[in-house]
Design a protein that fits this description.
Blueprint (H helix, E strand, L loop, with lengths): L2 H10 L2 E5 L5 H11 L2 E4 L3 H9 L3 E5 L5 H17 L2 E5 L7 H13 L4 E4 L1 H9 L20 H15 L2 E4 L4 E4 L4 E4 L12 H15 L4 H21 L7 H14 L2 H7 L2 E3 L1
Parallel strand pairs: 1-2, 1-3, 3-4, 4-5, 5-6
Antiparallel strand pairs: 6-7, 7-8, 8-9
Helix pairs in contact: 1-8, 1-11, 2-8, 2-10, 3-4, 8-9, 9-10
Length: 273
């Protein structure tokens, strides 16, 4: 069951190196602490190899790129590959600009990723080498719906097989595949889209789950996605009159902090295709 993946995170306290965007870096750190992991943040090229060496996993997020951080991503990524560490790519906004798209595609070409997590538009951009997004949100034409679910499942399986990685596409319906099986997950709340960084937080969370569950990577990634979505549901149920998106962000983090394996197993909404 997925709850055991959460138990392993709390037991093993995985140390995760995050090269993530400065819009959400504090929330990523707090989500990692909430789930039982331990965060380190560094994107300085002269620092990242040493930091990655002492961690179990590396989370690369391209949300706020600059030349220095891009160099840091490649140096840290190569070190993570050399050491056999978990490596996750979050291609934030791929398709929105040439720099983002080119960087994401080059990272894919030069590094071996354990997991790739993004919205459908970002993942399609990686699959095609080009694309469009509405800022950092999925283009409406790309949305995974009940009507497009069969084709979306086929797409994510095909891409995961081609990339030789677990691929997690998150949105109203989440898809997590290793190329053979696909978890179709229906946890979450639409209001989560009104908070900046829930995807960035999920990438940090997923990296921790993967590090703590090396023999069950597909299940670990699915468990992380269910944990985030379920936390969104629990957090929303605890909202009070006068609360807004800032409070909701904190309630989601609190829900992850208070989550246990029984709550996750009982609340996870998924099927396997």
């Amino acid at each position: 069951m997925l709850g055991s993946c959460l138990d392993n995170v709390r037991k093993n306290v995985p140390l995760v190196h995050n090269i993530t965007n400065y819009v959400t870096v504090n929330d990523v750190a707090n989500v990692l602490l909430a789930c039982g992991g331990s965060p380190i943040m560094s994107d300085e090229p002269e620092d990242v190899e040493d930091i990655t060496s002492i961690c179990g996993g590396l989370n690369i997020n391209i949300g706020t790129l600059n030349k220095s951080s891009i160099e840091g991503m490649f140096r840290a990524g190569r070190k993570a590959n050399e050491l056999g560490h978990t490596l996750l790519l979050d291609p934030v906004g791929a398709g929105a600009s040439a720099l983002r798209t080119d960087t994401a595609v080059k990272l894919m070409d030069e590094l071996k990723f354990t997991c790739i997590r993004g919205n459908i538009s970002e993942i399609k951009t990686l699959a095609l080498g080009s694309g469009t997004t509405k800022g950092v949100d999925a283009d409406v034409a790309d949305a995974v719906t009940e009507d497009t679910l069969d084709s979306a499942v086929k797409f994510v399986k095909d891409f995961a097989g081609k990339a030789n990685a677990i691929v997690a596409i998150t949105g109203a319906i989440d898809l997590v595949s290793d190329g053979e099986k696909c978890y179709v997950i229906r946890n979450g709340r639409p209001e989560m889209g009104r908070i900046t960084g829930t995807g960035c937080q999920l990438s940090g969370l997923t990296t921790a789950f993967l590090v703590a569950n090396p023999d069950n990577k597909l299940e670990a990634a699915a468990a992380a996605v269910c944990t985030m979505g379920l936390a969104g549901e629990i957090g929303w149920s605890n909202m009070q009159e006068g609360d807004g998106n800032s409070t909701y962000r904190n309630r989601i983090i609190d829900a992850i902090y208070n989550m246990d394996s029984e709550t996750l197993d009982n609340g996870a909404k998924y099927e396997i295709r």
